[in-house]
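Regression test attached.
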Amino acid sequence: MTTTVAAPAAATPAATEAKVRRGWTQHGLLFVAPFLVIYVVFLVWPTILGLRMSMSSVNIAGTNDNMVGFDNYAEAFADPRMWRSLWNTVVFTVLSTVPLVLLGLGFALLVHHLRFVQWLWRLSFFGPFLLPSAVVSILWLQMIYPPDYGLINGTLGTDFTWLTDPSTAMFSVVLTTVWWTVGFNFLLYLAALQSIPQHLYEAAAIDGASAWDKLRSITLPLLGRTTALIVVLQLLASLKVFDQIYLMTGGGPEDSTRPIIEYAYDMGFTGYRIGYASAVSYILFAIIVIVSLAQLRLFRKRAEGSS
Amino acid sequence: MQEPPKITRRSLLGGSLALAGATAAGCAIPVGLGSAQNRVQYWHFLGASDGIIMNKMVTAFAKDNPNIFVEENVLAWGEPYYTKIAMAGAGGRSPDLATFHLARLAGIGAGAILDPINVKLLEEVGLRAADFSPPIWERAHLDGVLYAIPFDAHPMVQYYNTDICGKAGLLGSDGKLLPTRNQDELLAMLRKAKEALGGKPPLVFDALGLGTVGPWRVWYSLYPQSGGTLLSDDGTTIAIDDQKALQALRLMAQLGQEGLCDPRTDYGASVASFTNGQSAFLWNGDWETTGLKERKTPFSMTRFPSVFGTGAAQADCHSFVLPHQRNRDPEVERATYQFIAYLVKNSADWAVAGHVPAYLPALEEPDYLALQPQSEYRSVITEVALDPQVWFAGSASRMWIEIGEAFSPVISGERTPEEGLAAAKASLNRLLSAPNPFPEQER
């Protein structure tokens, strides 16, 4: 620290410039300090603490705090319900991400080309996203899915037990999630669409391009970066699914919808085994880190390829 | 010593009324009384129609004891409640008093999360061990230490619609439901009621749905009637008698198949169906009594049908516990015991909610005996089927929910009784193999 304080007096403009380029100035450090403190106190420290907990048998009262090494991890890897909930998370992620990205794009294209009462279309697609998860869950649980008087069965004249049959429960939860969250992707796509320069389309029109050609050769390529962003955000959001499933099915029936976060919650808060729950959360943490790193690499390649 | 806050009786009553409104909405109530010495913070989960009775009792206590303010806080029943108690107890900043299911006592790590009951203070307010139903009093102890004060037992009971049952010819000359002593009599009774209802399922209970425990409750009423047990005495191995377990499950499957019960009702729908006279029988805990009376359903109640031998019925018991506090204010503590004593001694008022008092003198009171239909099933108190004393048992425990999930498809016919039993055993095995988060030496 002392050397950096002494340095500016003798520093040549070139040296300062080099330092700025490397990202080290004392003013900069001062500016980020508040954030750094919060980051360490609320993120780094709990992360380390959680890692320690995952290697202990600590319970919800904070007692029985014996170090058990990797016992919890060994138990988790041998626990069929852990794998089942992990698999449910993967199924949910795949089933939800695909329609959420495609429908988001589809709705955005639709609204972009519908030139009249645009606010109404925007509102109707984005509206559900504004609702809290509890409202959405209760709405679908109490009004749309009930087997005897629900909106779907009432309209179709069927009597499916949407949320209480293991073969349809996951699909039903995904359907609710898509309805609820597609608005966010839709909005990102709409913003991206509106930023594509109009003259590109005019030039293409002069060259005699059809609507399909324009979509394929101009719109979709120029939406590439947005799509990449949406896919990452969506994957991370879907991997972390909890609220609507907890509220609508509680993970049932027969574990068919229980995501890994709920499994950690159940083990920790209902089963009182905080140590084991931490180990389960760290397994999910590792998976999220891997997915994020893979995405990052994929992006870098694509960015290098395009430049 | 700080002076108690100056509140007039009128403002207190007004406050309790506001409290009643807020508790009905199920939210926490911040009371702006500052650091009152005599404010007893009381948590409970009585949100069914018994919550109305509890609120009346709290208000009545406030009237008699203007120097004590009971801050009533109604929390959602089930898993989240026990999570909150555990976390509050762990932090040592708990409410002064909380209701609790006795069967959960073994699972909560009483030493860490609950404080022992001060037997001397209990005697000071006039409560003695001899006043309580002995098996229930016994269950309030862990390793010889008293951790809970029993309040009631709430067994599975059979509600019946007197109009429909009368039409179906199921009532005796005294207007009461004719008893059923075996499986054939039960089925015959349900078939007659089905006919009277024009072919609609005459029986409802919470057969499916989010976190449903109905299938567990029904099974754990039927199965113990034949003498079946769940776990070995030391709670380490499964002791299910397959033949007896399957006999109960087959009856449950038959009820669904024959259209004698509606396998597609969840908790809310089952109560609504019975309330509106769309079904003749409701199998449920005894706590819906007040609501049914208020909605003028023509109904009465009786013990859960005896089918396989004894008249056992699944039950748990409400009790009072002292969640762990680092520093307990002696004044507040005394007030807390005063409040507990008031509630327990007025168990006859509490019985209006449907529960059978655990306080023996209350069972003899003319007020209680005059309660109809609440006193009809009081004899069940000696035949209640309580959970095994293991850490994963008790109301809304993982065991209840998982076995409920295992048996729910048996009733709807999506799973055979054998498959249901196998699923239940798999759940039990998982629970047995997981380490107890509160090992014995912790207490």
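Expected vs. actual: identical. Chain B touches chain A through 35 residues (CB under 8 Å).
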